[in-house]
Amino acid sequence: MVKQTGKGRYGEVWMGKWREEKVAVKVFFATEEASWLKETEIYETVLLRHENILGFIAADIKCMGTLTELYLITDYHEHGSLYDYLKSTPLDPKAMLNLAYSSASGLCHLHMEIFGTQVKPAIAHRDLKSKNILVKKDATCCIADLGLAVKWFSDKNGVDVPPKKLVGTKRYMAPEVLDKRLNRNHFQSYLMADMYSFGLILWEAARRCVSEGIVDKYQLPYHDLLPTDPSCKDMWEIVCRKKLRPALPSRWRSDECLRQMGKLMTECWAHDPASRLTALRVKKTLAKMMESRDITI
Fold first, then answer.
1. β-strands 158-159, 150-153: how paired?
2. pLDDT tens figures, 117-175
3. Quick one: pLDDT at residue 263?
4. What are residue 61's DSSP bridge partners?
5. What are the two backbone dihedrals, phi and then psi, of residue 54, each rounded to the nearest 5 degrees?
6. Per-residue confidence (pLDDT) for residue 163, from 0 to 100
7. To which H or E segment does residue 150 belong?
8. pLDDT digits over 115-133, tens only?
9. What is the domain partition of the chain in residue ranges?
10. Contacts from 41-45 at CB under 8 Å and sequence distance 24+?
11. In what residue span(s) does the Protein kinase domain sit (predicted)?
């Protein structure tokens, strides 16, 4: 263990060294054993490995006398989260599209069921936000923090969902989660709730893209409509009752790339889950936008 880099409700995050390589170590409190088990189980899913999903190395339990530490060891990315990166880094269209496309690719792989000699179940994240996406050295993204994720195997036709009703981060919760309309037995519902959150992440990134020499300072979604730590009631009022969404800056209208991004995010955060785009659709649209600008994927 070299130095602590973060702290969360489940424990701490450290940068460590393993075989001379830097690694990230998530240390769970002993009381959070269920979360540690759940996240380890998700990371150990068959065929989950993908360049845009955080690379899992190992999980371990360390007992020191009366103290038990639960470790989850993954690849280390020094840029930190997309949230940290966007706060400090203005983007050009190419950088914005790379971040968006790589995040969509990771989400698409997570959401997809893959049939081979072994089967990778479809997985819904359930806590997508810019703090749970990491930025790699090459300025592409990988999806992290899979502790609340749920798996679905089509042959079982059932969702393995823990009993806790409201999960995730309030600011990013889809309308159907906030007003408790989400069909807990229908797996597609969880995927569509992820897509709503993904629309907000696209908005965060697009605001940091320079056009006409202008760039907006980083803000969280709904920053102008909500208190710093909104309650579920605050969120419900804005998202469900008033059906408000983050404002699209007027400068986007005169920039083709940002105009298309605005359209894309609007189709992700639609009020009706059935009209939202899928991760695959978003990935394909972003790929087209990159091709039209001769950006290699």
1. antiparallel
2. 999 999 999 999 999 999 999 999 999 999 999 999 887 777 777 666 667 999 999 99
3. 98
4. 70
5. -50, 130
6. 60
7. strand 150-153
8. 989 999 999 999 999 999 9
9. 3-75, 82-291
10. 42/123, 42/146, 42/147, 42/149, 42/151, 43/72, 43/74, 43/146, 45/120, 45/121, 45/123, 45/151
11. 1-290
Half-sphere exposure of 7 (CA within 13 A, CB side): 1
Name the one residue in this structure whose structure tokens are 């020094």. 78
39: number of Cβ within 10 Å? 25
**Amino acid at residue number 24:** A
Give the span between the Cα atoms of 104 and 110, in whole angstroms: 10
Query: What is the second-level CATH architecture of the domain 3-75?
Result: 2-Layer Sandwich (3.30)
Fold of 82-291: Transferase(Phosphotransferase); domain 1 (1.10.510)
Pairing assessment for the beta strands 133-135 and 114-115 based on DSSP bridges:
unpaired
CB 215 within 8 A of CB 209: yes
Q: Which of 90, 82, 29, 72 is nearest to 52 (CA)?
A: 82
Structure tokens at 295: 């950006």
What is the tens place of the pLDDT at every residue in 16-62? 999 999 999 999 999 999 899 999 999 999 999 999 999 999 999 99
